[in-house]
Design brief:
Mean pLDDT: 95
CATH superfamily: Hotdog Thioesterase
Family: Belongs to the acyl coenzyme A hydrolase family.
Keywords: Hydrolase
Structural class: alpha+beta
Protein name: Acyl-CoA thioesterase
Pfam family, one: 4HBT
Bound molecules: acetyl coenzyme *A
InterPro entries: Cytosol_ACT, HOTDOG_ACOT, HotDog_dom_sf, Thioestr_dom
């Protein structure tokens, strides 16, 4: 799992109990996972088909920096399934985990599911090449 993005918990992200609102966390997860899926499939014509079980393990508080870890679980003909872990950047404590987020590539005109043409093997190679090109050392 690669931690690809961070966000700062701001006052307007809080719930009535002064911790990160679950609905905001879901919005962030959908967006972060969509960006990840778009980059993996190299297409922005994707829609969220399914978000499976999600568990909230620990609260995030105002001023916390949270980071998003993303991973490809499955690659189908028209779909990709990803998981997303949200954790505290400093303590590494898990805030929530969404195991099963499915995106489907759609035709921009008909809005019907269409093949994305990628396999899991292709995506593994693509990621290795991308990480190499970032020259992170
Ligand atoms: C980023 C966003 O927030 S987008 C906004 C929210 N999302 C939307 O508005 C999407 C609304 N939904 C739709 O338009 C339609 O359901 C579509 C076009 C996505 C898919 O239509 P369907 O008739 O379900 O397509 P179809 O049966 O061909 O399935 C497409 C893929 O989804 C998968 N799928 C279908 N139902 C489910 C499900 N309940 N759970 C998980 N995967 C599913 C299928 O296995 C298939 O994957 P594969 O081709 O890789 O094997």
């Amino acid at each position: 799992m690669r931690f690809l993005s961070r966000r700062l918990v701001m006052p307007n992200d809080l719930n009535y109990a002064y911790s990160l609102f679950g609905g905001r966390a879901l919005q962030w997860i959908d967006e972060e996972a969509a960006i990840y899926a778009i980059c993996q499939l190299e297409s922005n014509c994707l829609v969220t088909k399914h978000i499976g079980e999600i568990s909230f393990e620990a609260p995030a508080m105002q001023g916390d920096v949270v980071e998003f870890g993303l991973e490809t679980k499955e690659v189908g003909r028209t779909s990709i399934t990803v998981s997303c872990l949200v954790r505290n950047k400093v303590t590494k404590k898990t805030i929530c985990f969404a195991d099963d987020i499915v995106f489907v590539k759609v035709d921009p005109k008909s809005r019907k599911a269409v093949a994305h043409g990628k396999t899991k093997e292709m995506l593994v190679k693509q990621t290795i090449d991308e990480v190499k090109s970032l020259n992170l050392s």
